[in-house]
């Protein structure tokens, strides 16, 4: 399996026979040169969206149209994106699990954040914010989405038992590095932990040093580099 960070909270997962994009924000993403658009999106078979903020959905409709990849996520958000022209995927909700191809699945889990979209000068509600559990190639990946530290992580870790964590950890809008390390110690038994939602703006953490120092023994923290494959 290959995991590529698209900067901020965007990821590309090359898993089994699928290419799954999560929150692909490319246009005007300070961390990703738009020249990487084709490499970031080529061959995409599915798009998952965690919530409605611009730094997560601004390019979703375009990417879906260009690649033919269906878009799946929280009911209100998915239906909005489908109505804007995205290829129709699955509009589902907390506790739901969808199949992505024959060998990959995605389960929706809670996050603690907010979810609105910029629509004609208004900010309509786009359903609850979410995270995902992605399964394939013998791995279980917890994608936290934008979230604060929350007690739901207790049952997520106990029930799903993810071996890979991708945690928002930049602070200000989400958990910071110390909180992410606390979550890793208390709620999870990750073998690999990848921080995200950091380094993008000055208000966010610029390093994962505190996370690396705070995780339990046996957890490897990988600070991702944009468009550099992590092989797991």
Explain what the structure shows:
- Helix content is 22%, strand content 28%.
- It is of the alpha/beta class.
- The strands form 2 sheets. The protein has a 7-stranded mixed beta sheet with strand order 6-5-4-3-2-1-14. It has a 7-stranded mixed beta sheet with strand order 7-8-9-10-11-12-13, covered by helices on one side.
- Strand 10, helix 5 (152-160) and strand 11 form a beta-alpha-beta unit.
List the helices and strands and how they pair.
Blueprint: E1 2-5, E2 11-15, E3 18-22, H1 37-41, E4 46-49, H2 54-57, H3 60-67, E5 71-74, H4 75-83, E6 88-92, E7 97-100, E8 104-110, E9 130-136, E10 139-143, H5 152-160, E11 164-168, H6 177-187, E12 192-196, H7 209-214, E13 220-221, E14 230-231
Parallel strand pairs: 3-4, 4-5, 5-6, 10-11, 11-12, 12-13
Antiparallel strand pairs: 1-2, 1-14, 2-3, 7-8, 8-9, 9-10
- Corresponding CATH architecture of the largest domain: 4-Layer Sandwich
The top-level CATH class of the largest domain is Alpha Beta
Largest sheet: 7 strands, mixed
Strand order of the largest sheet: 6-5-4-3-2-1-14
Radius of gyration: 16 Å
What would you call the structural class? alpha/beta
The number of distinct helices, counting runs of at least 4 residues, comes to 7
Number of domains: 2
Descriptive labels:
single chain; 232 residues; alpha/beta; Metallo-beta-lactamase, Chain A; 2 domains; 7-stranded mixed beta sheet; 7 helices; 28% strand; globular
How would you sum up this structure in a few lines?
This protein has 232 residues and is of the alpha/beta class. It has 7 helices and 14 strands.
